[in-house]
Write a structure and sequence with these properties.
By secondary structure, the chain is an alpha+beta fold. The chain contains 10 helices and 23 strands. The chain is globular, with a radius of gyration of 24 Å. 46% of the residues are buried.
Length: 473
């Protein structure tokens, strides 16, 4: 079904238009982002069952204005007397500007935003099952999945959670009148096993613009989850060195996210914090390597119709045939750099600043199969179970933590597993070593990404299977 527009935001539309008109008498540019986000989280394990509100629910507004050569913002969550609100915003922003001048704090020189006139309403599709949930039956189903998990030998806990989220946003300015409503679901299952005083964990998950069928998708991977946790018992440490590796979509995704994540968020270019700024339009990867980021062509948790600055969703080609061709950019950074924004301006909440942020980041598809990749490997590993990652945008370093490396010898999996696995390297070397790319792209959006240590937003990443060479330890 098509998701309806938020009744709350629709009821605020005319008053927000009035607010823009009042502030427009004083400022050269005025915009308002209005946000209404809600949802429910369902959790079941052997120890507890719970139904909770979606933890990142929010409802509020943020005004952006341009005056005295710079941009300022003011957030609020009540829309009562519009004239009084306009006066309060003006007073607070003038005080803010006065304090900056008193403290001799300079601002980035940023041109005035010029927007094309556009008025559109966007509605995403969401399965009707999400709006007809019998909560008691859903919790019974989740508890049954947990019970099935712990019925397996050595499993002491199996937890499963399901969330459904509906997001409505409105972006208004003198020239723009945009509204969007869309939603997504996520589901993840974690299995904890114990044997001979040792414990191990594995997890599987799924996400997307889906319905409650996502629960069956995850439950259907219980055998995989059990196999993955049990293979870790007795696993050896890997001998540090450079190896041929095959990365499933989940592992390829964490590499895509960390290799060209924050380092190609172009607000980092403005601050001189990313070496990629000096290698644009250069060939830095193999001929078979394509990479993308965008909210338009993938339907996962980081998809939308327009970003938090009113830029319509699109797909950015980051790498094409190994050439570094584009970065990602919010509106203000684009103005400072003289480039086009790429619909990557995102806020943690309406109370937070907009930064350039990744959305769905993934490798493009190729022509090879997994079987061909394994058969072509004399010695190497299939590395999976992505856990975490980090990058050094100034020096193009990367580090990813994975739970398993499955050994390949003479073109066959031996059944031997090494754990844990730390992948490190220099990003251009890793990308230049990609020799084979799979045919099917998969993404997963059950995680969040911070800008440094804060500013958390939901993201997805992925790709097809890829074969490359990296350093493992």
């Amino acid at each position: 079904m098509k998701l309806p527009q938020s009744a709350y935001l629709s009821g605020c539309h005319d008053r927000l238009r009035q607010l823009i008109s009042l502030l427009g008498k004083e400022y050269e540019y005025v915009s308002v982002l209005a946000t209404d986000v809600g949802g429910t989280l369902y959790v079941a394990s052997q120890r507890s069952q719970a139904i909770r509100p979606y933890p990142f629910a929010e409802r509020g507004f943020v005004v952006r204005v341009y005056g005295e050569g710079g941009y300022q913002e003011y957030s609020f969550n009540r829309l009562d007397d519009v004239e009084e609100l306009a006066n309060r915003i003006s007073r607070e922003l003038h005080l803010q500007q006065h304090l900056l001048q008193e403290l001799d704090i300079s601002q980035y020189e940023t041109p005035l935003i010029h927007e094309e006139k556009i008025a559109r309403q966007f509605s995403g599709e969401m399965d009707e099952s999400v709006f007809a949930i019998d909560q008691a039956q859903l919790m019974k189903k989740l508890k049954g999945i947990s019970d099935e998990g712990v019925s397996r030998e050595n499993v002491v806990e199996c937890s499963i959670n399901f969330s459904n989220v509906v997001i409505s946003k409105m972006f208004l300015s003198a020239d723009k009148d945009l509204t969007q409503s869309y939603g997504y679901t996520t589901c993840s299952m974690m299995m904890l096993a114990a044997r001979d005083g040792e414990s191990q964990v594995s997890a599987v998950s799924s996400s997307g613009w889906k319905g409650t069928e996502i629960i069956d998708e995850v439950a259907g991977r219980m055998d995989e989850c059990y196999r993955d946790v049990m293979c870790l018992f007795g696993a050896e440490n890997i001998k540090p060195g450079e190896y041929t590796v095959i990365c499933p979509p989940e592992s390829a995704g964490i590499i895509a996210h960390e290799a060209f994540g924050h380092g190609l968020e172009m607000d980092m270019f403005v601050k001189e914090r990313a070496v990629a700024k000096y290698h644009m339009q250069e060939k830095i990867a193999s001929d078979v390597t394509d990479m993308y980021d965008g909210s338009a062509n993938i339907r996962d948790t980081a998809s939308y119709f327009f970003d938090d600055e009113g830029t319509l969703a699109d797909e950015t080609t980051i790498l094409k045939d190994g050439w570094l061709v584009n970065g990602m950019c919010d509106v203000l950074s684009a103005l400072r750099l003289g480039v086009k924004p790429s619909a990557n301006g995102r806020r943690e909440t309406y109370k937070r600043k907009a930064y350039t942020r990744m959305t769905n980041t993934y490798f493009g598809k190729g022509e090879s199969t997994l079987e061909e990749m394994i058969a072509s490997t004399d010695y190497g590993f299939v590395i999976d179970g992505a856990q975490s990652g980090m990058e050094d945008p100034k020096n193009w370093g990367i580090q990813c933590v994975l739970s398993r490396a499955r050994e390949i010898k003479n073109g066959r999996l031996t059944g031997k597993v090494f754990s844990p696995v730390i992948l490190t390297g220099y990003v251009p070397d890793l990308l230049a070593n990609i020799s084979m790319v799979g045919r099917d792209v998969e993404t997963n959006g059950c995680g969040y990404c911070g800008k440094g240590y804060k500013e958390w937003v939901v993201v997805s990443d992925g790709g097809p299977y890829i074969k490359t060479k990296v350093r493992l330890g």
